[in-house]
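[agent] plan:
  1. take the single chain provided in the ticket
  2. run structure prediction with default settings
  3. attach structure tokens to the ticket
  4. add a short note for the reviewer (M.T.)
[agent] executing step 1
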Amino acid sequence: MCHLAQTKRIRDVTGTDPNYPYRCNALHTRFSLPRAASTENMKPVCEQDVCVLRSAQVHDLVGVFLWKCHEENKVGGDSGVEIDQKGVDAYELRDIEDGVPSLDWPPLPGTQDLSKFAFDTMAMVRVPRKEKKKIKKEYVVVTTPGGRSTVPIDLDCTVSELLKMVSLFILSVGKRMDDFEPSDTHQKEQSAEKNEREEKFKTYTSESFAVYKKMNIFGKKEEMVFVIEGDKLSIIPTIMDSTNSWTPRSTWNDLRMAHGRHTPQKLLYYNMDDVVRACLVPEKSDRTFQFVVASKKPVTGMTEYNTHEFETKRVEDVARVIRKMDRILNTRKSEARTNYDAYLEAQEAAPKRRWV
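[agent] step 2 finished; step 3 output follows
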């Protein structure tokens, strides 16, 4: 029943009370109850003639009709039609065209007086049920000493509310850090993750080494600073200054202006994508290493591979140099290294020339 039907008597609405003074102002109407709200199945299964007051509204008429159907067993019995438990709110009145409810026009307003409508034949249909939209839930991952958990959150909440909710969650399901004793497996996983982060950090962190480079056939060596960075190699020459200490020079102008016993060399840079190989040279010494750089000839455009050989000042530095360069080369993809591998395979597959 509607809101007015809960406070008014049925007799007052329908005008059937013999003592009602305004019985002469009754309004006669006829309407039907279709099976469904689709135009394909709109044949009425229940028709009623109802007499109501002119001051009655649309939802009053719906409530009276449901009451009459219930009293006369027109609905819910042999007809196979059940009244919705929501009552008046589940139905609406529409105009009838060609024996079926008209869906071209909106339904009659529930608070509108029936006397304002020119037609007296109406159809009561169910209000289409709106499907509730499924709200996509968002989750936040909370890491506690006991593991990781996902907590559903509302995107409309503020950051302070989110922090408060996470704090309450940790207090409710977590343990205090002092009382928690991690297992051996958990410690090993944390240790492995920490080592992996440290290795990645070391890979792209600049590191320098003191090296020597052979300058001529007489075995004369020049000391240099070999700098390994994530994207390039830098070879910085050093010269002897007035204080007899080795000092690195960062630009060619400083090297050219400096006075020393040796002729200064140029500052060299190599892109790490052009470096195709780095290895030890144990047949020469336990401190010697070399790296190969790919470069294109300016005239022909052909690729050539130049080998640069250095000797570390300390024995323990040579292994660190090779390890760091291999780590960088393995984490960076380079077309030059791919071409170099194909070049080595072609060299091995080529027939060797025999000298007679």
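[agent] step 4 note for reviewer: The first strand starts at residue 26 and ends at 34.
[agent] ticket updated
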